């Protein structure tokens, strides 16, 4: 750091104070000489300049400490705050807040990247397994082999769709269109899209409730319901039903849809972790198709939409997932 450059910066920053001081000195000299019989300039001028030099020296040193502290603050987040003036303290506090915010965002970004890498590794592994099965089956020709190929093809399509949805989550703001939508209509559309799965699994959807308007994004809301319904069908025995109930709580401005199955239920030990990524619990060990991804994406998407998701379950009786929507526009 150049001391001459530091002095120039001090003179530049203190120029107004110097001008005021010099004007004040000139006025004092004038008054002093008017009051005295003899004209004297050297002594009062020497005293005045001495005070000015001391003042500039103090200010130069203060600027040196401030710039030295700024240089340290650029390099490390845990810098030593050395400031005497309130303005300098405010600057250092602002820098510390920026550092903290930056580090928080950096940690969140790293966690997001780690999660994404894990997801992609998982999807790629699943797709490689499906391709290996298809390759082996292609050397044989039978109805059973064709069924295996069709099954693996469905797995590939499911994994690709989940990958696309995962990528879309990053562009959520650009792909998010909130609107007033009929929840009953969305539920019926999802059931219609899943009709083949219901038929092939011999599971029957039953809807209770009437039209209820909520504020949401139709596509992403359908995605959430689709994931929940997929799980409900997957874990339901043949001949059972999946119940859809729309409940309106006008006093608190909430509307909810409950999706309840009659499946095997979830072990109480697994309930606190059902929304964790890749967590499949005890049920996942008996179902090879369990990935531990669906409910994690449901929770993440619902949070972005501003909806609440909760889950209750009793072992041997079934599981109920509830999505709560705000039905008043002022919340958005």
From TrEMBL:
Predominant subcellular localization, coarse grouping: membrane
- What's the protein's topology in the membrane? Multi-pass membrane protein
The organism's place on the tree of life at top rank = Bacteria
Instruction: State its location(s).
Output: Cell membrane
In alphabetical order, the GO MF annotations are:
ATP binding; phosphoprotein phosphatase activity; phosphorelay sensor kinase activity
Q: Which Pfam families match?
A: HATPase_c (PF02518)
The UniProt keyword set, sorted, is: ATP-binding, Cell membrane, Kinase, Membrane, Nucleotide-binding, Transferase, Transmembrane, Transmembrane helix, Two-component regulatory system
Q: What is its EC number?
A: 2.7.13.3
Q: What is this protein called?
A: histidine kinase
